[in-house]
Amino acid sequence: MQTLFNLLWLALACSPVHTTLSKSDAKKAASKTLLEKSQFSDKPVQDRGLVVTDLKAESVVLEHRSYCSAKARDRHFAGDVLGYVTPWNSHGYDVTKVFGSKFTQISPVWLQLKRRGREMFEVTGLHDVDQGWMRAVRKHAKGLHIVPRLLFEDWTYDDFRNVLDSEDEIEELSKTVVQVAKNQHFDGFVVEVWNQLLSQKRVGLIHMLTHLAEALHQARLLALLVIPPAITPGTDQLGMFTHKEFEQLAPVLDGFSLMTYDYSTAHQPGPNAPLSWVRACVQVLDPKSKWRSKILLGLNFYGMDYATSKDAREPVVGAR
Q1: Is the pLDDT reported for residue 15 higher than 70?
Q2: How buried is residue 286: exposed, middle or buried, by Cβ count under 10 Å (0-12/13-18/19+)?
Q3: The domain that contains 127 carries what CATH number?
Q4: Quick check: 301 and 12 in contact, CB under 8 A?
Q5: Mind listing the pLDDT tens digit for each residue in 97-154?
């Protein structure tokens, strides 16, 4: 865990830098940026002095596409690394083909689980599944697991109540999910359900997730869970998923995707993921470090612009 936090200092403790360029400087920077984007480097970022704690914005703009192709598949972190491929950034599909070996799991945001009636479930979004892309990724990253995100979508409180109170419903749900994984050649799923039910029926939800994980494991598939931050952003209050729930699910799940980002809001602008809060969320979940290897810490690769309008915020991503 100490290694993990050392890495976090590099990833998160970077102060924003604001500079002003003259018109001539701007033209020079723009031309250099375009030149850098089209060239690979023969050295990795570690050897080029780019892994620093006092990162400059200009360095990111100039170097972000100039990676070392010879080292693109080398791993530097021994723990599990989960990456998401999202609909709002289709470039992620290409990035995964190049850097897939740096991850242990990739989760395309493709699928939704819906309840259609008594003991009837359907996984939708299968039209988005790209088998050709999956084959290409696995060809270059032999140990990579493809675990699509599976969102419990359009579930009412009655849907949850009927399923969580019925062993037959849970059994049928698990069978449906396992069969989809087998048919589509997935390696498991990243399940997103905790936020949908809020704080209600936690005991039943833990039971269902345990049963689902056991069914997936029996089929040699992975089961990961998306969880909200253990400390509510901007407060000292515990979140919806705490040490109590973590202790019950850690022995049966393969990993937890912890949402340690989006700390600030449009009404209270501020940092996206303050390190003290990120560290506290991990310590609350697992104070004795028993299961920390299963905590996949959410690292945001974007910032937030609070100046777009009075009561809104807008992600600052590559296109900007």
Answers
A1: no
A2: buried
A3: 3.20.20.80
A4: no
A5: 999 999 999 999 999 999 999 999 999 999 999 999 999 999 989 899 999 999 999 9
CA distance 149 to 83: 11
- Is-above-0.70 flag for pTM? yes
Residue with tokens 């949908």: 196
The whole-angstrom separation of Cα 95 and Cα 103 is 11
Strand-pairing partners, residue 54, are none
Cα–Cα distance for residue pair 259/299, rounded to 1 Å: 8
Check whether residue 104 and residue 55 sit in a common domain.
no
Residues 154 and 249 in one domain: yes
* Residues 135 and 198 reside in one and the same domain: yes
Nearest to 173 by CA among 191, 196, 187, 157: 191
| Distance of alpha carbon 148 from alpha carbon 137, whole angstroms | 14
End-to-end CA distance of the chain: 34
| Per-residue tokens: 223 | 């089961």
Number of domains in the chain: 2
Cβ distance 39 to 64 under 8 Å? no
pLDDT at 272: 86
